[in-house]
Each structure stands twice: as C-alpha cells, then as structure tokens.
Write a structure and sequence with these properties.
This protein is an alpha+beta fold. The chain has helices spanning 3-13, 15-39, 42-45, 53-84, 86-94, 99-139, 152-175, 182-186, 200-219, 229-259, 261-264, 269-282, 284-318, 338-347, 389-399, 464-472, 494-503, 515-555, 557-569, 574-611, 616-649, and strands spanning 323-328, 352-370, 373-376, 384-388, 410-415, 426-432, 435-446, 458-462, 479-487, 512-513. Helix 9 crosses helix 20 (574-611) and helix 10 packs across helix 13 (284-318).
Length: 651
C-alpha cells in the first residue's frame, strides 16, 4: 500500500467527519470564484459595463474577507481533526511509521481534499455564475444581462490561491505532528476529562460584562453616541461576556440543574446533563465563535435590510409627493408646462394617484424668535411662505399628520421633520409685498406636509380670516402657487423625474423637488447590491459556523458510541438513545443561536435608537430566516449523526 492509497483510504473511512469541512470549503471556493469571475470578466475589465464600478470595490473587499475566513476555518478544521486522530497516529507510529512519513500522510490527505474541493467549487461556480450575472444585471438595471464567460484569470486565481492556502496550513499542521510519545497518543482517548469547575469571580465578570454591554447598547442615541467609545465598550464587553458565558456561567447553570433532583433524575435527564457539561466545556470555544458569528450575521443583514426599508420610509416622510414645483404668479407656468408634464407621464405609463394645489404668500427675510432662540430663514436656509390653516389641514390629512387649530391673529410655524425644532411660542417677523409684519407664534411643530424647496423651507400657518385679509393686499403676480403630484409606482419613476427636470429652466430648478424617485433609485441600488453581495458572505459564515459544530460532533463520535454502547448493554432502548442524542445536539446547535439572537436584539434596539425609529418587525424577519436555516442544518446534522451513533451503539 502506497502513501497515496493510504491517504485516500483514510479520507473514505473518515468521510462523515470530512464531509462538513469539504462542503464548506467547496462553498468558499464557489463564492470566491463567482466574485473573481465578475471582477475578471472581459466586459468589466474593458469598461464596457459602466455600472460594474459601483460593486467592484465591494466585491474586492469580499474576496479578501473570504480568504481570511477560509484560512481561519481550514486552520481550525485541520487542528481539530488531527487531535481526534492521535490514537490512529499512535498506531501508525507503533507499526514503524516515522514522523516524516506521518507528515507526508497528512499532507497527501489535505492535498486530495484541497484538489477535490477546488475542482468541485470552481465547477459549481461556473455553473452558477450565469445566474449571478443575471441577478446582478437586474439590480444594476442593465438593459442587457452580463454575458457568460469563464475568465482564465479567475480560474487560476481561485485554484492557485486556495491550493496555496490549503498547502500552507497543511504544512503548518504537519509540523505539529510527532511531538508526543507513542504511549500518549495511544491513551489520548482514555484520558479522564476531570471535574467541571467554575470561578465565582469569572461568573461575576460574565454578568457584569453582559449587563454593561446591553445597558450601553440600550442607552445609545444620536446625541450620546457620536464617537467610538460606546460601540467599543459594547464590542469588548460582549466578546468577554460571551466567552465566559460558555466556560463559566454554563457550569454554574448545570450545577443548579443537578441540585434540582426532580428535573435532574427524571428519565434520561441525568445522562443528558452529565454529558452536556463536558460537551459544553470541550466545545466552549466553538460555541463562543458560533454565537459571535450568528450575532454578526444577523446584525449585519438586519442593519442593511432595515436601512433599505428605513431609507424608503424616510424619503416619503421628507418628501410626501413625487413631483412638486412652485410657480411665482397666480397663472404663471414658467417652471414647467402642465401639458408637457402630462404627456411625459402618460408616455412613461405613470398615473397621478394624489395631487394638491394651494396658494401661498412669500415671506421675505423671516426672523423667528422664541425665548432666547432667534433664527433668520433667508435664502441660505430656503425661505418661507405663508399658507391658510384650511390648506395646511388638507395637506396634513392627506399625509397622515394631525390637523391643527388656531386662534384668530396667531400663527404656527411648520418646521421640516428632518430638522431640529428649537422653538416654542414667540414671534415671526418678515416682509410681505414690501410691508413689514409681526405675527404672534402660538407654537412651532415638527412635521412635513409638503416637499421643501428654496421658497418654503419653513411654512407659516395662518387662520383663514387673517390669511384672506393678507392675501387681498398681494398682487396676483407675487403669489406663490404650489403644485404637488404623487405618482403610481413612484419607485420606478427615476428616469421620468429626470426627464421632467430637463423641462425646467436651470435658474428655476430650486423651486422644484422631483428628486424623491431619483434618490430612491440611487440609494436602493447601492443598498440592494450591498445586501445581495452580503447575503453570499453571510451564507458562507452561516454554513461555516454550522459546519464547526457538525465537524466537532463527528470528531467525538467514537467516544460517544462507546458510551452509548455500554448503556445499551444495561437495557437502554434505541428510543432513549435517540432522545438523548437529539436533546444534546439540539442544545449544542441552538444555544449559540439563542445567544446570538439576544445579542442581535440589543444591537437592533441600539440601531433603532440611533435612527430614531422602530424596526422590530424587520429584525424579526431576519432572525426568523436565520432560525429556519439553523433548524434545517440541525435536522440534517442530527439525522446523519444519529444513524452513525445508533449503528455504533447497538453493534
């Protein structure tokens, strides 16, 4: 038997243990190749795809991230797998195999796995790259999809890079082999695990760190969290607290369960909890890593998803109408010709679902005084106009804002919702038709019932009678007439809004606001691309984190099989063994998931505070998807593990 055949035989014999590592490696290679194929695509390199520049930098960053993560994952997998094979290496050494030969064997095994994973990963990458290009073309709103191509640079970069990665780690792990004596290797599986212990001080530190992290996260807001201090405190506290949660607090919890005899000695619970303590102790670092990975995955995806939803909501709140323009003059159409606008909307297939038209009066050099606060809303701020209470309430009702009431002779100031309102009661002064006026201000309200332009950054709301008297002294050609239209399917109206802007004389553009659809198209494209690219990275993280648990389970299988085999001899049934296995694997799989979800919920609450909004429903959508995926992975791992376990336990 040659070393190559022995290596292949070892891989076949340990395939169940290797499978999770192999599949995760294949997925890493697949994602890396797809990104590399896009970056090395001839049309992208030659600049034929202009939109590609928007995602190029993000994909390059993802490539580096995949390499770093793959390096750490492969390093861990090799180290963990070699530890479980100490007895096997001891037998090889006993039969005369030298340290150099053991190292050659490990290198051959890893080389075989590497070549197979790279070949399968690149093959699947070629298969799915066309779907990736099609999806990317839709997100970039390209007229034609990106043509299929297999850039040789992407193939060599992926194959060569990952093979080098595998070989560097293989050489490093091979050098660690042979440091132990043969007797130590043979007895590695028989060493006692020792007594489970915990430190009261470290338990106290765990609680203090988690309480601090959650407390700071809940207290974060735009005013108190401008710097990096608060996020840094949260990060350090969560990392330290999570690590000691599994190494210290978990032992304390199991001791607490052991003292509850009614629970501990009920049916098979004594075996479940007795073994569980050692499983958590042995897997503490894995559970710690998976918990943090879960939190990072859910928080990142949740944040991007919330940002996408929040951006749309914010745009509608700041600009209640898709198209708004203000004409100076009662019958003027200098800004845009209504007939031309109607023709463009009709040609592009958009209908007006809601519209508003009202007359206002320009307030020149307005000064608002409230207590010690004084502010001049000149042209640098955007100006002000006066409208009647009736017109204001119609606008407020149409956008869901509360209607207002006014005493005769008083006004209210409407400040945009995205600006801080520093005013209470006070006065508003300014010129109307070259006549200075001083209005008593009842209050200032923070809301947006109409898009803002350079003529109506703030709006003075006046009772109907006083407004009619004011209006009578202003010539028709100095009145302001606001036209507002909400379009059907406004999210797709970016190009139409750009066409309408071209109809407006350049000097009158500040009197318009057609930007909502344009801003939405731009921001949504960037966010969607970020979410699209990030989903692949998150999926890679998810599969790798689940694979770590799966891999660890199978590396401990021989020990578990021996224990359950002994239990089956004294009368334990297959159903009882199945119950113990499912319970233990379920706890190992879902405890880090639950810890990650708790971390995520506090992170999402912190994000809500910073955005001054409530996005819990979107957070739960992301968390629900993660739980569903984790459950599928658990069922797959549990099914495979249980088949092997029952086969060994009843043999």
């Amino acid at each position: 038997m040659t070393f190559r055949s022995l290596a292949l035989s070892n891989i076949r014999g340990n395939w169940r243990s290797y499978s999770a590592f192999f599949l995760s490696s294949v997925f890493s290679v697949l994602i890396f190749y797809i990104y590399a194929a896009f970056l090395a695509h001839p049309d992208v390199v030659n600049g034929n795809i202009m939109a590609a520049a928007k995602v190029r930098r993000g994909m390059v960053f993802c490539e580096y991230l995949i390499v770093i993560f793959s390096f750490l994952f492969v390093l861990y997998s090799n180290s963990a797998f070699l530890k479980t094979r100490k007895q096997e290496f001891g037998l090889f050494s006993l039969f005369g195999m030298t340290k150099a030969q053991l190292r050659r064997l490990v290198i051959y095994e890893n080389a075989a796995i590497a070549v197979l994973a790279i070949a399968v990963g690149i093959g699947l990458g070629m298969l799915f790259s066309k779907l990736f290009f099609m999806a990317l073309g839709v997100l970039l709103d390209m007229d034609e999809t990106i043509p299929f191509a297999v850039p040789l640079k992407a193939v060599w970069m992926t194959g060569g890079g990952f093979f080098l990665l595998f070989m560097v780690i293989s050489l490093w792990t091979a050098l660690r082999i042979g440091r132990n004596e043969i007797i130590d290797l043979l007895n590695a599986a028989r060493k006692p695990k020792g007594q489970l212990a915990y430190s009261k001080w470290l338990v106290a530190l765990t609680i203090a760190c988690l309480v601090t992290a959650y407390g700071v996260a809940l207290s974060m807001n735009p005013e108190t969290s401008a710097g990096l201090t608060s996020p840094l405190i949260v990060l350090v506290s969560v990392v330290v607290g999570t690590y000691f949660l599994f190494t210290q607090l978990s032992v304390l919890f199991l001791r607490f369960i052991q003292k509850r005899h009614g629970v501990y000695y009920k049916r098979t619970n004594v075996i479940v909890f007795a073994q569980l303590g050692y499983k958590i102790k042995d897997n503490a670092r894995i559970l710690f890593t998976v918990s943090l990975l879960s939190a990072v995955i859910m928080t990142a995806l949740g944040a991007v998803y919330i940002l996408q939803i929040g951006t749309t909501k914010q745009m509608v709140e700041r600009s209640p109408y898709s198209i708004v323009y203000i004409e100076e003059g009662l019958n003027s159409h200098e800004v845009i010709e209504p007939k031309k606008m109607e023709d463009i909307l009709h040609e592009d297939g958009f209908k007006v679902t809601r519209e508003a038209k009202f007359t206002g009066v320009k307030l020149i050099d307005p000064v608002v005084k409230s207590g010690e606060v004084e502010r001049t809303y000149d042209s640098s701020w955007g100006g002000a106009q006066i409208i009647s209470l009736s017109d204001y309430n119609k606008l407020a009702e149409s956008v869901g804002e509360p209607i207002q009431t006014l005493k005769e002779g008083t006004v209210k100031l409407s400040v945009p919702i995205y600006n801080v309102n520093p005013f209470g009661s006070g006065t508003v002064t300014g010129k109307v038709n070259d006549v200075q006026h001083n209005f008593e201000m009842a209050e200032a309200i923070n809301n947006t019932v109409m898009n803002t332009t350079n003529l109506n950054y703030v709006t003075v709301v006046m009772d109907d009678l006083s407004f009619a008297q004011l209006l009578s002294g202003v010539p028709d050609d100095k009145l302001l007439v606001t036209y507002a239209f909400e379009l059907s399917n406004w999210k797709k109206a970016g190009e139409t809004a750009a066409k309408l802007q071209q109809l407006v004389p350049e000097e009158l553009l500040p009197q318009t606001d057609f930007d909502r659809s344009i801003r939405y198209a731009s921001s949504t494209e960037e966010i969607s691309l970020t979410l699209f690219i990030g989903m692949f990275i998150a999926l890679l993280f998810f599969i790798a984190s689940g694979s770590m648990i799966y891999f660890k389970l199978f590396t401990e299988m021989q020990e578990d099989q021996a224990q359950f085999k002994s239990l089956s001899r004294i009368g334990m049934t297959r159903a009882e063994i199945r119950k113990i296995v499912v319970t233990q694997i379920g706890i190992v799989f879902f405890v880090p998931c639950v810890v990650g979800i708790v971390h995520t919920l506090f992170a999402m609450k912190s994000l809500d505070n910073l955005m001054e909004s409530s996005n819990w429903i979107y957070s739960f959508v992301v968390i629900g998807i993660y739980i569903a995926m984790q459950t599928i992975y658990f069922l797959f791992a549990c099914g495979n593990y249980m088949k092997s376990m029952l086969r060994g336990a009843t043999a």
